[in-house]
Amino acid sequence: MQLRLDVHDRIDHMPGQHYVVRLTAEDGYTAQRSYSVASAPGDPLVELFVERLDDGEVSTHLTDVVEPGDELEVRGPIGGWFVWDGETPALLIAGGVGVVPFVAMLRHARAIGRADLLRIAVSSRTMAELPYTGELLDAGALIVLTREAHGIRPAGRLTAAELVPLWEPGQIAYVCGSASFAEAASQLLVGLGWPPSGIRVERFGPSG
Amino acid sequence: MPGPTRGFLGRRGDRDPRLPPGQYDVGGDWPVLTAEPTPRIAPETWSITVDGAVESPTSWTWDEAHRLPPSEYRGDIHCVTTWSKFDTRFGGVSVDTLLEAARPTADAHFVMATSRTGYTTNLSLEDVTGGKAWVVWEFDGKPLPVEHGGPVRLLVPHLYFWKSAKWISRLTLMNRDQPGFWEQNGYHDRGDPWRQQRYQGD
Q: What is the pTM of this model?
């Protein structure tokens, strides 16, 4: 679910950064989680993407209880590593909702007229489970589905051979997804001879 | 402080007193969070060096480190991404043992821990001495898995877990504090989970 927030006195984020949302109960009990920003810095609102986890204390509140007009305590932007500077060619490899920080990069690239700098590969179980599908398809992203065919491509995991055509000189690689996806994808790059120092990884722990 | 969030009740009742504020019990899982690809390091090629502001810079190979007096940690660990894991058991050697050999100089007050990958994290000397920090190669009596920092990681369990550098290869004593990798990227210099020192300014 997309959560679009009007953040007062906000500091512009760099694409790839995240925000922390903190919920407070009447008795002072708090729970907080991090969510990647999907919007470009130039967007007047901050868009967070929240994946609803059935046993998630924070995500269920955000998806089921929060209504337009509610106030939320947020903190951000946070993170100075998994960010794109808007100038360096980048290969973006996402698993599932790991695509969210790349949506921010893509939107920013379009806003500054440099969409040519980004190459995107996304793996999802099914098309229906992948957020921002339309924008990704419009951007020419490679979409790989592991549970169903996509066009002439049969269901299956992302392969090294599929990444080769996305390579451009001078690229930094960004990998974002579950721990197992991030590990597999970054090892694909290492196997292709990509220098480990040119790979930035964001692994999603369990959140909720 | 902002007021309560409309409609938020939170999980009630049986909150474990071992949980620092803002944390939850992850149970049997052990999430992996790393900013870089997992390196494959053969134990025969691993070594740890203590250098910087010390009288006697010293390195230990895998075999040499295993001949040092063994030391164990049993207890809880806390990640800044809000999970905590109870009743862990790690085995290796106390950082005190390494520092006794290298002998920090009188004006050494901080330590930079460096991994084979180039990852760094800064700690005060006080936070890694007095039985509070280990260099570990066993988890639950088995070799430490590579995704959790194997063959050898730093363990500073009273601080958020990004301080417990995976694939540790060097401890450099310093007279003045310098930010490490996450600390340069907005995270707190100390990282005490009981004070919720998550980000710079906390």
A: 0.82
Number of structural domains (chain A) is: 2
| Helix or strand (DSSP H, E) at A154 | none
Report ipTM (2 d.p.).
0.77
* pLDDT at A208 > cutoff 60: no
For residues A69 and A115, membership in a common domain is answered with: no
Residue-averaged pLDDT of chain A: 93
CA distance A144 to A152: 11
Q: How far apart are CA B200 and CA A188, in angstroms?
A: 34
| pLDDT on residue B108 | 98
Looking at domain B39-195, which CATH architecture does it have? Alpha-Beta Complex (3.90)
Length of chain B: 202
Q: How far apart are CA A6 and CA B135, in angstroms?
A: 46
Identify the CATH number of the domain in which residue A183 sits.
3.40.50.80
- Taking the CA of residue A23 and the nearest CA in chain B, the distance in Å comes to 6
Residue B50's nearest CA partner among B155, B165, B157, B174 is: B174
CB contacts under 8 A, A 60-79 vs B, are: 61, 65-66, 70-73, 75, 78-79
Structure token pair of residue A132: 């921002």
Distances (CA, A) of B113 to B64, B72, B121, B167, B174: 20, 20, 5, 10, 11
- Last residue of some domain: A78, A106, A139? A78
d(CA B127, CA B113): 12
